[in-house]
Design a protein that fits this description.
It is a single chain. Helices cover about 15% and strands about 40% of the residues. By secondary structure, it is mostly beta strands. It has two domains: about 1-15 and about 200-225; about 20-195, Galactose-binding domain-like (Jelly Rolls), CATH 2.60.120. The strands form two sheets. Strands 1, 2, 4, 5, 7, 10 and 12 form a seven-stranded antiparallel beta sheet that branches. Strands 3-6-11-8-9 form a five-stranded antiparallel beta sheet, with no helix packed on it. Strand 8 and strand 9 (about 130-135) form a beta hairpin. Helix 1 (about 5-15) crosses helix 2 (about 205-225). The protein is globular.
Amino acid sequence: MRCSSFFVAAALVAAVPVQAAVIFSQDFETPAFTSPAAGSYDRHDSVLPAGFAPFRVTTYGIGTSATALPSPADGSQFLFLSGTNSGVFAFAGVIQADTSYTLSASIGNLDNSGISWSLQLFANAVGDTFIGQQFAQTPTALIPAVNMWATNSFTFDSAAIPGVVGQQLVVFLNNYRNTGDSYYDNVTVTALLNGGASPIPEPPALASLIATMCVLFGIRAAVRRRG
């Protein structure tokens, strides 16, 4: 058996389970603002972090809390949206084949009107190919108590919508009613290859593994020859 025969075996051994990779993340802590007086929060209209852009928004911006936001939010800043079917969007990368994507966000209820939020994914551009959403009226939605936050998410598998592969994945945070504002923090998108494993390890790791196996095989072969 030659050392080169270990190549396939090495690749199989190195194919270990991996966690979903975070391909997009925004916590709205930048640009940073001075905290307001205790017991209140300030709104900074028409301000967005880098990478986000408004879409048919009446009012939007970053809110700053006087105290740290309760879990699952964190820090002291968040995004707020107002106006019917208004929102902000960002590009999260190119959609890959056979990959599951999960859009997740901490949703706040700061004024008992936080029932207008929607987490949406599009391909290519907002208003182009609608992939899906999780919103306040969905049966599985988690509605936080007043002044609290809850994590909500939406997942899709690109294998089920092959036509979107190769297009940009667009995150759209939407306020879809005019009866209140919506609040967001810790927005992330994760990606995981179907099967939950890395099919081929990184080249340096693979080379190191093959080299180690070759050394071990060489030692074993030498011992056999001496015997």
